Amino acid sequence: MPAPIRLRELIRTIRTARTQAEEREMIQKECAAIRSSFREEDNTYRCRNVAKLLYMHMLGYPAHFGQLECLKLIASQKFTDKRIGYLGAMLLLDERQDVHLLMTNCIKNDLNHSTQYVQGLALCTLGCMGSSEMCRDLAGEVEKLLKTSNSYLRKKAALCAVHVIRKVPELMEMFLPATKNLLSEKNHGVLHTSVVLLTEMCERSPDMLLHFRKLVPQLVRILKNLIMSGYSPEHDVSGISDPFLQVRILRLLRILGRSDDDSSEAMNDILAQVATNTETSKNVGNAILYETVLTIMDIKSESGLRVLAINILGRFLLNNDKNIRYVALTSLLKTVQTDHNAVQRHRSTIVDCLKDLDVSIKRRAMELSFALVNGNNIRGMMKELLYFLDSCDPEFKADCASGVFLAAEKYAPSKRWHIDTIMRVLTTAGSYVRDDSVPNLIQLITNSVEMHAYTVQRLYKALLDDISQQPLVQVSSWCIGEYGDLLVSGQCEEEEPIQVTEDEVLDVLEGLLVSNLSAPVTRGYSLTAIMKLSTRFSSVNRIKKVVSIYGSSIDVELQQRAVEYNALFKKYDHMRPALLERMPIMEKTASNGPTEIVQTNGETEASMPDTKHLPLVTQPANQANDLLDLLGGNDVVPVIQTTLPTKPASAGGELLDLLGDLSLSGDPAPAPSVPISQPPFLLDGLSSQPLFNDTSAAIPPMTAYSKNGLKIELTFERTNPNPNIAVITIHATNTTEADMTEFVFQAAVPKTFQLQLLSPSSNIVPALNQGSVTQVIRVLNPQKQQLRMRVKLTYTHKGSPVQDLAEVNNFPPQSWQ
């Protein structure tokens, strides 16, 4: 059989291929020849064939059929064969293939070979692909070589020991005695690998970390010698002595000094020397300075040293290399919480990085800029960030807008500034803001009572300029619906009022309803705003006509609202002023045990994880927190009552579910909050039938509370369709000479009952018994148990708030049997 071609000739031949198919054909032909040679057990050219096979493997072609040939080469006595054999084993074998275990004995023999280069090959192979079984079997041989005086073998044995520890951590203690003299070696290669081994041991074992902390002075001495030593051509890189070893020592010092005062104290001086004496004109020096900064920030270093480290990062920001600038920004972002003032000194440089062309640098600069915002620099930083928001790529706008919202909410110097900033974001990046930005801004506007006229005027102007930003349009529609009367009357004091008529305002809102740019949610906002203006404007007939048109809309949500609003005009016109009055001051969120109150458009939605309990009717969030005080135990179900009107409202029960108000989250308005599976008495808020039937004349009334001039009497009714339901009406009277205002009645019952509070007739109890406040309570008692109730009364009397608790247990038997 003719001699196979040499590796060099194969490479030259493959490079002449013009197409991928031609190359593939050459490779297949050569692989066939190599297979034939392997079958004939040709020992003469096995080394050459495996070398060619490894080259094909590097090109991406399959070479697994050469694995056993690698083992035969390893077993050979010739060094050239062993070299190719071990290289093939490292490339073609790993611990997932059982065939690698066949070479364990060969590696053990070679570790004890008389030639250091053969020993080095075995150490490299074991350190590269040794499995946990091989590491257990050969760890003793590695430990012996770690103690040898041969520097060539010690450095390879140290790296092999690192692999053994990673595979079998329990063998770590075996190498502990051998590590004692490693740092006293003069050879830099042994020092480097020794530091790598010590680092691995310290990261994997707290006990080893404590043991090696005594080596800190020795490591400091080695690092100092490296800094102070003169020119050494063997180790010099761009004028710096062995930067690779310096970096490794700095990383080990960082691990040893973390959370340890003594070790940190011992390395403070050398870290300051490295930070001040390292040349920064070359990238090599910057690498050492970066590791020095990380070490300073990670150990318990002195405050002056930490400032020095941050100043180094500040200099990095002025470097022309983008990678160095990115590294500096990332490091400053990690340290800004602990060393805020030191980082603030480089604020202008950080802000300049927002103008960088590199998107990674811009993102890090944006994140760091938001981290630097505080009450002192909020105006200047927001000016820069808003300018960045105007000009940045779309991929940044969402995160930047969110950051501006959070910073403005936390550090706003005034409500007007806060509103102006949020509106600026909505006008420039409205399509990119988070879903919760609309309800948050509405809450802010609602709570800023003195800014209502200014805000509605600004939003109206913005709406005239641009209706493409949907969040802006939604907020504007909501505010015009709430405060349209202030817009028309021109009561703005903060800036020159604009002259606008009712018809012009309605024209704008009607334009939103028909605009192709308006999302379905936005149209819902606009329709609700027009409806609210029916109590603020005189153009009621025009509003009726607009509402009636959308009663046949193909958008189900819009159609439902229009039908409800039409019903409000016709059947419930007497309730319209109370229903459409201005929203009270909102609270963002509140929680009460398992119940979460989520603030929406003037409402709160309560959700209970335990569906067997009665769903809660909404109430102001600040009252929800008081229920815990009222309940006092786990055996009661809280009942949260509806928001109190500021004007008396007749037929309070009809207010429960008349309108599914517009959700501020941008989603369609939810269906009525009461599930169908619940008792049917919760669903009849709009029923034209009587609220209950008077079939309980025999149930005597009772006095539940009488104190400080306030008297609460209870009368009882029983419903015909469901005898398990008792309807209780409270009558609150006041015998004192002054009205009791802000009156709130709350109640709770045990879990075996279900209870619902309807809206009260008023929140003012007139003085001298000149009137009373009535409120209906429905109680479902399917088990016919004795009724028990805890009540909480809150009101204001003569300017002083009053709060009292009471327990009612003496209900007449006819009310619950």
Account of the 3D structure:
The protein is α+β, with helices and mostly antiparallel strands and 817 residues long. The protein contains 33 helices and 14 strands. Strands 7-8-9-12-11 form a five-stranded antiparallel sheet, with no helix packed on it. Strand 13 (789-797) and strand 14 (800-808) form a beta hairpin. The termini are far apart.
Secondary-structure map:
Elements: H1 7-15, H2 20-39, H3 46-59, H4 67-74, H5 79-92, H6 104-111, H7 116-129, H8 132-146, H9 151-167, H10 188-204, H11 206-212, H12 216-228, E1 236-237, E2 240-241, H13 243-257, H14 261-277, H15 283-298, H16 303-316, H17 322-335, H18 340-344, H19 347-352, H20 359-372, H21 378-391, H22 394-411, H23 415-429, H24 437-447, H25 452-465, H26 470-489, H27 502-514, H28 520-532, H29 540-549, H30 556-570, H31 576-579, E3 589-592, E4 595-599, E5 604-607, H32 621-624, H33 627-631, E6 636-639, E7 702-707, E8 710-718, E9 725-734, E10 740-750, E11 754-757, E12 773-780, E13 789-797, E14 800-808
Antiparallel strand pairs: 1-2, 3-4, 4-5, 6-10, 7-8, 8-9, 9-12, 10-13, 11-12, 13-14
List its traits.
5-stranded antiparallel beta sheet, 817 residues, alpha+beta, 4-stranded antiparallel beta sheet
